[in-house]
Write a structure and sequence with these properties.
Length: 181
């Protein structure tokens, strides 16, 4: 895994010079994003499949795919240059478990996923609504959130079984499998 993460860092920094994929401009910056993406693997159950909504430059979806090489991972990214980067990385790192979908998540069709993840896309209520056709009662959610997570949760009417794990300035919202739809 370490070798693939190093390769990912090199590819991201190389592409970032031309395409401005992320604000992470140094190896240390990329490493912080990798650590942020990987931290939840210390407390979540290994998923049967992953859908990452709005993967962008690869955080957290590509990093989770590297951490779980035997788990089917779909990276849903509507922007062309970012989707192209993700496809290139998956090919270069020989990640046979990764599928890149250049669509908005509400336009993507698939069987339900074991885990739906997202970082810095939209609020929690909207993420749950946008992915309702891709979840079932067993689907879990991992949302990388900031300080507004508590007010976001107040806006949701149904009862959720969740944990919020805080680290640095990040709130990791882990919603356990249930009927969220």
């Amino acid at each position: 895994m370490e070798k693939k993460l190093k390769q990912f860092t090199e590819l991201l920094l190389e592409w970032n010079k031309i395409h401005n994929l992320t604000g992470a401009k140094t190896p240390a910056d990329v490493e912080k994003n990798i650590d942020d993406s990987l931290f939840p693997t210390t407390f979540i159950k290994k998923p049967s499949s992953i859908l990452d909504v709005g993967t962008g430059a690869g955080f957290p979806g590509m990093i989770l795919a590297i951490a779980y090489p035997d788990v089917r991972t779909v990276l849903c990214e509507p922007r062309l240059k970012r989707a192209s980067f993700l496809k290139y990385v998956a090919m270069e790192l020989e990640l046979s478990n990764v599928e890149v979908v250049k669509k908005r998540v509400e336009q993507y069709r698939s069987e339900p996923f074991g885990l739906i993840s997202s970082r810095a896309v939209t609020d929690t209520k909207m993420l749950l609504e946008l992915t309702k056709h891709l979840q079932d009662k067993m689907t879990q959610f991992l949302f990388y959130k900031g300080e507004y997570i508590f007010s976001e949760l107040e806006a949701i009417v149904q009862e959720l079984d969740y944990d919020i794990i805080e680290k640095n300035q990040r709130n990791y919202l882990y919603i356990k499998g249930q009927n969220v739809v």
